[in-house]
Design brief:
Strand content: 25-35%
Order of helices and strands: HEHEEHE
Number of helices: 3
Oligomer: single chain
Radius of gyration: 14 Å
Helix content: 25-40%
Number of strands: 4
Strand order of the largest sheet: 2-3-1-4
Distance between the termini: 40 Å
Shape: globular
Structural class: alpha+beta
């Protein structure tokens, strides 16, 4: 049980968004990410694009303005993985 708790906490901290930067907004009810743009912009976020699924929107923003207010509306805010943000992949 302790190992499971440690693994869960590591997973949670790896997806916890930084104070400012790229974040993924995930509509938990599956609604289209386009509906998340207005509320995100109202909270000071800048749009970066869509995520890999229809219910994910990538934004640049401040965690303090987005995290709890979006969660109240059924939207999970996580740190956006680099490959979702248009980062180039290293070629080998």
């Amino acid at each position: 049980m302790q190992i499971g708790l440690v693994l869960l906490s590591l997973l949670a901290t790896s997806f916890y968004p930084a104070a400012q930067g790229p974040m993924a907004l995930i509509a938990l009810d599956g609604r289209d990410a386009g509906t998340l743009a207005g509320p995100a912009i109202e909270r000071g976020a800048a749009l970066r694009g869509r995520g890999p699924r229809a219910n994910i929107l990538i934004v640049d923003g401040r965690r303090e303005k987005l995290l709890w207010s979006m969660l109240k509306h059924g939207v999970l805010v996580i740190a956006a993985p680099q490959n979702w943000c248009g980062a180039e992949r290293k070629r080998t």
